[in-house]
């Protein structure tokens, strides 16, 4: 692989089971070619924060939300990767990489560079140059492992945009997996109605303000096309459909359980009403008999010598 420069970018997701390590003190706002990153849709851009230093990038997606995702992106030249095996391990507080992107310039040797980048990504010559797509700026291939980006010239600006797109794609997938698991666990644990409603609200907020089938501004046509390829390969839109279907099914289960409980409550109230009516009727009958006896006694007392008269009549 000598004679050609290779850059390897790895996306390390934050370990959600641990507290995130603090940002290094020397970080600054991430720019590409000394320009602010502004190719994402505005409402989505407001939920992102990107930082960098000489070591790498720190990417925050959906900042402040329950489904927030954080990535560290480490960049290495091939020579650095070979000389420092420890550098391939995830940094403290982050998990193993969810994607690896390999950058190289073609230099009129496309088959050879494709072979080398395939070995870096897959460990074998899985991808041949015939498998690559071609754009104005590069040849490429996207898979679940990551991406081969073979530039037609040395400029890596578009490659860096691809790194951000892949990070967003995996942020979407991890958020949806997290929400899906929470919903399933709540149903299994038979959590309270309030807990389920709170999770439904979170899912609705995710779909309403954070998830977009096309998160790139339409004026950035090349970056839009790049997102379409990533979406198709990673199945992001399909995963969102599955999450929406799961929410709908859970809502049906919740509604059925609620209707069943409401029916039980109605039957219980009806039984209680019936019992109360029967008790009141019995009470009314006892009162009626008591009043009748009182009336008879009053009648007897009100007639002078009536008892003596009846006694003499009988005898």
Distance between the termini: 138 Å
Low-pLDDT residue spans: none
Helix content: 40-55%
Please report the total strand number as a whole number: 11
Order of the strands making up the biggest sheet? 2-5-6-7-1-8-11-10-9
Order of helices and strands: EEEEHEEEHEHEEEHHHHH
**Mean residue pLDDT:** 85
Calculate Rg over CA atoms.
37 Å
Strand fraction equals 15-25%
Write a structural description:
This protein has eight helices and eleven strands. β10 (138-142) and β11 form a beta hairpin. The chain is of the alpha+beta class and 315 residues long. The termini are far apart. It has a nine-stranded mixed β-sheet, sandwiched between helices. α4 packs parallel to α7 (236-302). The longest helix is centred in the C-terminal third of the chain and has 67 residues, at 236-302. Helices cover 52% and strands 17% of the residues. The mean pLDDT is 85. It has helices at residues 42-45, 78-83, 110-122, 157-189, 193-210, 221-234, 236-302, 306-314; strands spanning 6-13, 28-29, 31-32, 35-36, 49-52, 56-61, 69-77, 99-105, 133-134, 138-142, 146-151. It is rod-shaped, with a radius of gyration of 37 Å.
